[in-house]
Write a structure and sequence with these properties.
The structure is a homodimer of 224-residue chains.
Chain A (H helix, E strand, L loop, with lengths): L1 H10 L6 E2 L18 E6 L9 E7 L5 E3 L20 E8 L5 E2 L1 H4 L9 E5 L2 H5 L11 E2 L1 H10 L3 E4 L11 H10 L3 E4 L9 E9 L7 E10 L2
Parallel strand pairs in A: 5-7, 6-8, 7-9, 9-10
Antiparallel strand pairs in A: 1-12, 2-3, 4-10, 4-12, 5-11, 11-12
């Protein structure tokens, strides 16, 4: 019996969690004026050192990450002020069909409630993570939709590419509307393997004091 | 009633979790031959940019972090191969009184079982995190204790300063014994606010492909 229990545990090494974090690797896509992700070896066993020791250099807005109010609001709080409950708890994954941006008309039928954690799965998930090139025409949250979410008063919003705002438009406006309303932002989720529905969200950013953002690891588990 | 519920939620912004992650900030202690943690502003609102955008440079072994087999084992797995269950689930925090190192004789009375997640709270927690200077004489896991834990076959071990191995001795030996036995290592925990006992552990490292380690966020919640 003990062996069977051990085997059962060994076969489920995910604990039922889906990893929706973008893998960090050299050459990966990044916002054009941001620092690229780069890992180098400070020490290397094959150079005669006792250990392999890597150093990384990266924008805090590469891969899966969170934005803090300080990203767009002068004097705004850093990422260390994130309440853990903002990114730990039930979340709804909504499937967005608009190929350009998230718009209020597509959100309204979902009857979004105050305090909700909302993750937006767009065509970005299957399209943008397949390439290391930065995809400029990713689906973003229009400033109208950002104002709608701010008015509803959701707690947290997540999107499946590098920014809630667009590359060509609604960059600053969308961030201002969301961060200004106290909404916490998760960017860079890969929701390819995730279907619309209700999940338990677990997203933990690094605790970087005073930072406008931080890389994060994010997981989802289906709530039956 | 809705208001009362909202208030109740707002008062517990930790969800009952204790954050045992070391805050990342410029000037913090680091292993002498490792890259220091440094955050700089790539873009800054007070320089006329639209946003604040930070970049970080850091050893993957600064602050709270995990070690992968690749840290000491040539050809060993990178941190992206961590099974999520290794750092998500019940863990025992043991209080270690030896001021020099963790030794088998202090561990044996705890009757440690195969598959356990063991976190070692030493005098490092109240002593080492109070300063930004690197503390060389921190309490480490002696190579004898590492071999004992390997023989028992625990799943995960955590320690409350930057390395499971000592600065003056048992650096490579302790890492080899633990990583060679397939034990996952969490280093740089700050257990100052944590008492010995059983907790739910949640430790999520960044998913850095092929890396010998990765910075992590780590939380504990008491199991009653």
């Amino acid at each position: 019996m003990a062996n069977e229990t051990t085997k059962a545990n060994e076969t489920d090494i995910t604990g039922g969690w889906l990893d929706v974090s973008a893998p960090l690797h050299n050459g990966m896509a990044h916002w054009p004026d941001n620092q690229a992700f780069e890992r180098t070896h400070t020490l290397a066993i094959d150079r005669g050192d006792a250990a392999n020791v890597s150093a990384i250099t990266t924008s805090v807005h590469n891969g899966t990450h969170m934005d803090a109010p300080a990203h767009f609001i002068p004097g705004g709080n850093g990422i260390e002020t994130l309440p853990l409950t903002a990114t730990m708890g039930p979340a709804r994954v909504l499937e967005i069909h608009d190929p350009e941006s998230v718009k209020p008309d597509e959100l309204k039928p979902y009857n979004i409630q105050r305090g909700e954690r909302i993750l937006l799965k767009t065509r970005n998930s299957p399209r943008c993570w397949e390439t290391d090139e930065f995809v400029k025409d990713f689906v973003y949250i229009s400033h109208e939709a950002a104002h709608y979410l701010a008015e509803v008063g959701i707690q947290t919003v997540g999107i499946d590419y590098l920014s809630v705002g667009g590359y060509f438009k609604d960059g600053a406006e969308t961030h201002h509307a969301l961060l200004g309303a106290g909404i916490w932002i998760i960017e860079g989720l890969n929701l390819t393997q995730v279907q619309a529905g209700t999940y338990e969200l677990l997203c933990l950013p690094l605790k970087i004091i005073g930072s406008d953002g931080a890389p994060a690891r994010a997981l989802l588990r289906k709530i039956e």
